[in-house]
Write a structure and sequence with these properties.
The chain is 0% helix and 14% strand. By secondary structure, it is an all-beta fold. Strands 2-1-3 form a three-stranded antiparallel sheet, with no helix packed on it. Strand 1 (40-43) and strand 2 form a beta hairpin.
Length: 73
């Protein structure tokens, strides 16, 4: 700022910082790329799929057919 009043020349960038695009990461838990509020939970034994419930992780859900633990796909 030449005069200290905020009227200096415009800078070269847009202020985004480090040339990163927003929303390109895998999330804080580093899950699958498609792991968002939508998706499916799949049984590791019999392969049945159920819609993922946003309120609980797939690892806490038991398979409705065989009772095995579900995983996120």
């Amino acid at each position: 700022m030449p005069r200290g009043d905020g009227t200096g020349p415009a800078g070269p960038g847009k202020g985004a910082g480090y040339n990163r695009q927003p929303g390109t990461g895998r999330g804080r838990m580093r899950g699958p790329v498609n792991a968002g509020p939508d998706g499916y939970c799949e049984c590791s034994s019999c392969g049945i799929r159920v819609k993922h419930n946003r309120a609980e992780p797939c690892s806490a859900i038991k398979c409705p057919q065989c009772g095995s633990t579900m995983v996120r796909v």
